[in-house]
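[Q] Does anyone have a clean structure-token version of this?
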Amino acid sequence: MEKRYYVEIIGRNDAVIARHPMGELPCRIGRGSDMDLILDDPHVAPAHLLLRESAEGGVEVVDLGSQNGTFRIIPGKKAERIGNAAPVNADVNWRIGQTTLHVRSSTDPVEPETLLTKDGWSRRPLMACFMFALYFFYLCCEDWLVHWENPKGITQSIVIDIALLYAWVVCWSLATRLITGTVFLHAAHAVTAGLMFLIGFCVKPLFSLFSFAFGLPELPIVAVIVNGLVIAAGLYVHLRLATRLKKPMRLAFASLIACVLVLTNNIDELTREDKPESKRYNTELMPPALLIVPGATLGELIEDARQLKKRVDEARKTEGKE
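[A] Here you go.
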């Protein structure tokens, strides 16, 4: 089979905008009307680039004396201006003017097709509306408990929180559009943000309920760690939708941002001294029906206090004799 060559016009994020098959080599590229491939780029010379067969049997690019030159772009390296001629490789792009080109042959390997799947539940607009409604219901309950004496405060707080969530979703959707060129991901960002905020807000009350049910002391450090994991997971999903970063980079960025947010917002909890006046106790009233591990009765508590007083008195007497 005869080997054929194609010149691809590369856009943002290495996306192929157009692909032009080349007939026979040599092939001239420029802005002139007599070129084999005409580019509407004012920074490209009328006769800018030549593709021809090299002495080794491959293909090479030759700059035709343009003022702006031809640059070789290798991933992870600085763009390098070529002198006269340079060989064509499968992993190299070429920049002339403000246009990026890639030369591909018919024998270059092609990745297999992407599996065609239906949109997940997280990308459905109905699910995004449900998530906003659930978040609104949570805010109503939470703000009513805090501002029940001031109805105006309830309305103002809910409006501000909903506006902040919507602004968060809009910013991520706009970033997705600018970075990847992908649209219609508003629902996915809305579901991700709603889940992240809902779970993050519910972590502390759930830990308080758990501590009360099992008769355990308050463990704010555990709630802080879980909150950090929830934020990191939400940011990871946002970055996966909005960027083309590799998985390790997404994980590193999400973890770093989550650590900064958690540390700055919970510095008091993490630096609390281990003193009686600094200890955290559960100050919320909860129904006894939620108790799983029953506590001591009043009589048992008084008897334990009496025994403790007896041991303290004996210890004092022993210290006095010494």
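[Q] Thanks! Anything notable?
[A] Residues 92 and 180 are 21 Å apart (CA to CA).
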